[in-house]
Automatic annotation (TrEMBL):
A Pfam short name: Glyoxalase_6
Domain (VOC): residue spans on this chain: 5-125
Organism classification: Bacteria, Bacillati, Actinomycetota, Actinomycetes, Pseudonocardiales
Gene3D superfamilies in the record: 2,3-Dihydroxybiphenyl 1,2-Dioxygenase, domain 1
Signal peptide (from-to): none
PANTHER family, sorted: CONSERVED PROTEIN, HYPOTHETICAL FUSION PROTEIN
Name of the protein in its database record: VOC family protein
Length: 126
């Protein structure tokens, strides 16, 4: 049996290009125009890993995390050197900081929302 590899990680959204551009700014990755179109946009991992993809879902609803009304279905964790560096990068890319879970105030991660409301974490390595 052959080994399996991850082909892409896809995120549903109302505006694939806009969200790909946001994550491109955050991660420093480029859109792979050959693999992208109106309904699907891919960011190429410069280290050769699986791309991050954004798929059109015209019925996408913003997560209301931490409220469970519209739950997050998944989230990305992004490794950064320090929480301050992560915060600066997230805000500069266009993210909004979300409330830190009460039981995680001293944790080495901070929670943000991308422009379409998907939560993601900036996780400090130090």
């Amino acid at each position: 049996m052959s080994a399996l590899t991850l082909a892409a990680y896809a995120i549903d959204c109302a505006d694939p290009r806009r969200l790909a551009e946001f994550y491109g700014r955050l991660l420093g990755w480029q859109i792979d125009e050959e693999e992208s179109g109106d309904r699907w946009v891919e960011l190429a991992d410069p280290s050769g890993g699986a791309p991050l993809a954004f798929q059109l879902d015209p019925h996408h609803k913003r997560s209301t995390w931490p409220s469970p009304e519209v739950p997050q279905m998944a989230h990305l964790d992004v490794r950064v050197g320090t929480l301050d560096e992560g915060h600066e990068r997230a805000i500069a890319a266009g993210a909004v900081q979300l409330p830190q879970p009460a039981d995680q105030r001293d944790a080495r991660f901070r929670v943000y929302a991308d422009p379409e409301g998907h939560p993601f974490c900036m996780c400090a390595s130090q």
